[in-house]
Design goal:
- With about 210 residues, the protein is α/β, with parallel strands linked by helices.
- The protein has one domain: Vaccinia Virus protein VP39 (Rossmann fold, 3-Layer(aba) Sandwich), CATH 3.40.50.150.
- Helix content is about 40%, strand content about 20%.
- It contains eight helices and seven strands, in the order H-H-H-E-H-E-H-E-H-E-H-E-H-E-E.
- Helix 2 runs antiparallel to helix 5 and helix 3 runs parallel beside helix 4.
- The longest helix is centred in the C-terminal third of the chain and has 15 residues.
- Pfam families: Methyltransf_3 (PF01596).
- One of its GO terms (biological process) is methylation.
Amino acid sequence: MIIDPHSYAEGFISEDAVKIAARARGVEVGTHDITQGAGSYLSFLAHLLKAQSVVEIGTGSGVGALWLLNGMLKSGTLTSIDDEAEHTSIARIAFADADIVPSRFRLITNPVMEVMTKLTDRAYDLVIYRHNPEDLTYAISEAQRILRSGGVFVVDNFFGGGKVSDPAQRDPKTVALREAGKALKADNEVWATTLIPIGDGLLLATKL
């Protein structure tokens, strides 16, 4: 049986039992988590950046956070924000299962854009956005503020289930994703941008 390259890439780095269990809890409550391949890529990116301080917007089941923590410095701290208390609750279970010490993470349950405004200027190495696309314009502005020079802003699920590349798709979420991509790509004095076709698409923008 021939496996297509995308599927091969998705499964290239396997998930451990803790991530598999976290993902299953997410399915039960309806979280929209990062894919296995995208998770392994972001873990690799965190390692390349020697990430000490990371923000994840959209905790979900916690599986994305586990991938990030795998790649971050052992002294680093992940701030993960979600507006659903149930998501935060199951993420805590995942962190406990993985023996992540409390000093390595902050789990915050509050409106995510409200929390972003309270984060410190130029203090973060990596910001992952996995939330409502219609808030992306605001999130990009806040990411620019809180990222250090050379830090990276990532929009997970950028393909929007395959809709973004189809100009006939004009629902608000798809348009918001498409416009965010155009804005980041055009602002080349602030961002260096690329698009990675793994998972449901990772849009990456490095702050210059």
